[in-house]
Design a protein that fits this description.
Oligomer: single chain
Radius of gyration: 20 Å
CATH class of the largest domain: Alpha Beta
Shape: globular
CATH architecture of the largest domain: Alpha-Beta Complex
Strand content: 15-25%
Largest sheet: 10 strands, mixed
CATH topology of the largest domain: Spore Coat Polysaccharide Biosynthesis Protein SpsA, Chain A
CATH superfamily of the largest domain: Spore Coat Polysaccharide Biosynthesis Protein SpsA, Chain A
């Protein structure tokens, strides 16, 4: 949808930090099945010269070269003109009619996010994930669809439908403090504290992209520890600390023998930044008070280390030629 047209019903944001081939796989799937009244925004963290001449159908916005997935997502969200924003990371693929059910769910004003089912690339009839959860001890886990599976706290960073206004209110955008590995869990905490609804729509399927690369032990510890302290508002502190100690022990075992010390070093660095989480505590408290103004909350101040990243800056637009006819 060209800029200047009427406001779209849906913004489809495709963050592409580095992999051009993955980007084109996603673009093909989206443009072939694109719903009416939608705009497609590609947020680039790498160079891309539009070999298919689709700048009349797609809006390209440029994040700094080398930007992370989270940074590209935030640039795309900042460009969204619709009330609902759908994030579909490069390498993930759309399926027929995948936006219809989620869009209908947003007719309920209480709904802030909709989780599509993630299906296997090898067998698209087999769901493999349905969003993510953030456990009390500060651990991000994927929700595996099954009978009796817990309700997710939010969509995964790579594929989810969001009320745009909520993303801007709760961040704005996703925090870079928790890295690509935990940014979605950090936003899921904001969803939980706000009291807004998260809905799973099993009529909406997206095809899973490449697995997330395993982070180094230091980064894994750093981001997980930050996630815990950024999520402490609204939890009963003694029980949260007990759960957190158990999670640190579990994490140490999974990184043994050579990654345990770097992981613990990363957590220590995050812990030393304790005072920086206070703005996040205030933000979560504000969300809680807005949803439950009469509730008495026993909380401990939290902190935030991503002060410099607290604002989603307006994206830098690529210079574009005059709209061209799509050649392929």
């Amino acid at each position: 949808m060209p800029r200047g047209a009427s406001q779209p019903q849906l913004s489809i944001v495709i963050p592409a930090p580095a992999d051009v081939a993955a980007l084109e796989d996603t673009l093909v799937s989206v443009l072939e099945k694109r719903p009416a009244g939608s705009e497609v925004i590609v947020a680039l963290g790498c160079a891309y010269d539009d070999p298919w001449h689709i700048c009349d159908e797609v809006t390209f916005v440029q994040a700094p070269i080398g930007s992370s997935l989270v940074a590209c997502v935030n640039v795309g969200v900042a460009s969204s003109r619709a009330d609902v924003t759908h994030i579909l990371a490069a390498g993930w693929r759309a399926t027929e009619g995948w936006t219809e059910g989620p869009l209908a769910r947003f007719d309920d004003e209480d709904t802030a996010a909709v989780v599509p089912l993630t299906v296997s690339a090898d067998d698209q009839t087999r769901p493999v994930a349905a969003g993510i959860r953030c456990r009390r001890g500060g651990r991000r886990v994927d929700v595996v669809p099954s009978r009796g599976a817990p309700r997710p706290d939010g969509p995964t960073l790579e594929a989810g439908f969001w009320r745009t206004e909520f993303l801007r209110q709760a961040g704005p955008g996703f925090s870079t403090a928790c890295g690509d590995s935990c940014a979605d869990a950090d936003m899921a905490v904001a969803l939980s504290r706000s009291g807004r609804s998260v809905v799973v729509d099993d009529s909406s399927h997206v095809v899973a992209g490449p697995e997330r690369p395993r982070k180094g032990a230091f980064s894994a510890g750093l981001h997980a520890e930050r996630l815990f302290w950024r999520s402490i508002a609204g939890q009963w502190l003694p029980w949260a600390l007990v759960a957190h100690l158990a999670e640190v022990a579990r994490h140490a075992l999974t990184r043994a023998p050579f990654g345990t010390l770097p992981m613990l070093a990363g957590r220590l660095v995050a812990l030393m930044q304790f005072g920086a989480y206070l703005p996040r505590y205030r933000q979560l408290r504000s969300l809680m008070e807005a949803s439950r103004p009469d509730q008495v909350m026993d909380e401990m101040p939290t902190i935030r280390i991503d002060g410099p990243h607290g604002t989603v800056h307006a994206p830098k637009r690529r210079s574009e030629p005059a709209p061209l006819r799509r050649s392929a």
